[in-house]
Amino acid sequence: MTGTWQLIKLILRRDRVKLPIWILGISLFLLWMIPLLKNTYGTPESLQTLYETFKLNPAGLLLTGMMDAPTFGALFTIETVLWWGLAVVFMNTLLVVRHTRQNEEIGAQELIMSARVHRGASSVAVMIVAFFANLVLGAIIAVGMIALSDGGALWSNSQVLLYSSGMALLGFTWAAIALVVAQLVESARSANGILAGLIGVTFLLRGIGDFLGQADASGLVQPHWISYLSPFGWIQATRSLTYPEWWPLLIPILCAVVLIPIAFVMLNHRDVGAGLLPSRRGRARASVFRRTALGLTWYLQKNIFLGWLVGVLAMAAICGALVSQMSHVYDSSPQLAQVISAMGGTGAQIPVFLSAMLMIIILMTMAYAVQASGKLRGEESAGYLENLLATKLPRIGWLLRHFFVVLAGVLVMLIAAGFTLGLATNLGGESVKISEYILAALSYFPVVAVFSAGYVCLFGLLPRAAGLVTWVYFGFVAFVSWIGGLVNLPQWLNNFSPLHYTAPVPAEAVKMLPLFIIASIALALAIIGIVTWRQRNLSLSD
Q1: Which of 56, 263, 387, 461 has the most CB atoms within 10 Å of its CB?
Q2: Does 246 score more than 80 pLDDT?
Q3: Residues 131, 214: contact at Cβ < 8 Å?
C-alpha cells in the first residue's frame, strides 16, 4: 500500500521514546517479579497456604483470577497475567488512537494524504508497528522467563511460549479493537474514553465469570461462560503455567482477523476527520456557567472525572461488601496477613483490611489526578491553548483553574469513596462509622495533591516529559504500596513513596506532621510550576 513504509518510519520516530519505555517497562518489571515472589513464597508450604486462601477468596477471584494449583507458576499467573495484561492493553490502545484518530483530529492526516499516500496506509502502518511491538514484548518476556526458570524447575519452555504468546495476542487484539473504535468517533479523547470503558467492562466480566465458576470432576475451577466474553478471559483460559491449553489463543487470533477488515470497511465509509457515529447536537448557546473560563475548564475535565468516579465507587462498594468474607485471611495465611498489614497497619482485622482497601482506592484517585492534570499538556500540544490565550484569558489563571478543578475532583472523589466504603461495609454485616471512613479518605488529600502539583511543576519546567515522568512515578508508588509488603522491598526504596510517611487510617491514628510536610511540598511544586509556566513559551508539539 502506497506510503506504508514511510508512515511506519514516521510512527517509530514519533514514538522512539514512548514505545521502548512501554515495552521495557512492562517486560522488565514483570520479570523482576520472579525473584521477588520466589524469595518470599518459594517454599511448598507457603504456596499451599496461598492456594487454600485464594481458593476461598471471592475478592481474589474478582481481582486476580483463579489460582489453579499450589505451584509457583500458578502464583506468578495470578500476580501478573491480568494486571500486567492491563498495561499491555493500554500500550496498544493508546498507540493506535494516537496515530489514527488523533492524527485526523489535529489535521495531520490531511497533510499526509496530500502526498502520494493511500488513505488506509496510516492504519496499516500503525497495526504493523503494534504487531511487532507486541512480538518484541513477548520475546523479551519469553527469554527472561526461560533464563529465570531454574533450569526448567519453575516452568517448561513450552509453557513460557504459551504465556508470552498470550500476552502478545492480548495486546494485538486490543489494537484491533482500538482501530475499530477509532472509526466511530471524531476525537481521540472520545475514542480513548470508550476504550477505557470497554477495558473496564471486559475486566469485570472476566471477574464475574471467575466468581461464578464451578469446580469440575478433577477439582479444577472452570470459569462461567461469561468469562469468555472478555479478552482477559481468553488469555486466562490458557492456564499457561499450570495446565497449558493452546486452543483459547485461537479466539484472539480470530477476533483480530475479523476486526481489522471491519475497521478498513468502516474507514472507507466515512470522511476524513469524521466518525461513523453522529456527533451529538449541542445547544445553540452555551449556559451562563459554560461561557465562563471556569465553566470551560469543568467541561474539559468532566468526562475524566466522571469515569474515574464510577470506577472508584465501584471498587469501594466491592471492597466493603466483601469485608466479612475476607476475615479468614488472617487465620489461613500469615503471609497475606503480612501484606495487608503492610498496607493497612496494625490493629483489629476489619479496620486493617479496610485501611488496605482504602489504600487501593487512594491509588486510583492518584491515577485520576495524573490523567486529569494531563489536560494541561493536551490542550497546549493540540494548539487549543494558543487560541484561548489570544483572548483576555491570563496564562496563570488558565493553569490555576485546571489545577483547582482537579483538586476539587479529588476532594469529591475521596468523600464519595469513604462514604461508599463505610456504607457497603455496614450493608455487608459489619458495623463501622461512615464518618470515620470519610475522614480517613480525606486524610490522604495532601498525598494525592502532590501528584497534581508535581505535574504542574513539570508542566512548567519540562512540558514534553511531564506526563511520562508523573506516570512513571505513580507506577513506582503503586508498585511499592501494593507489592512492597509482599516482597519486602529495601527501606531506602520505600522512602521515595509519600504513602510511606502516612498512617494507614483508620486502623491507626492520623499523623499530622507528615501530612503537613507533604502538603507544603505540594504547594512548593505548584508554585514552581506556576512561575516557570509564566516565563516559558508555548510548546505545541510532542
Answers
A1: 263
A2: yes
A3: no
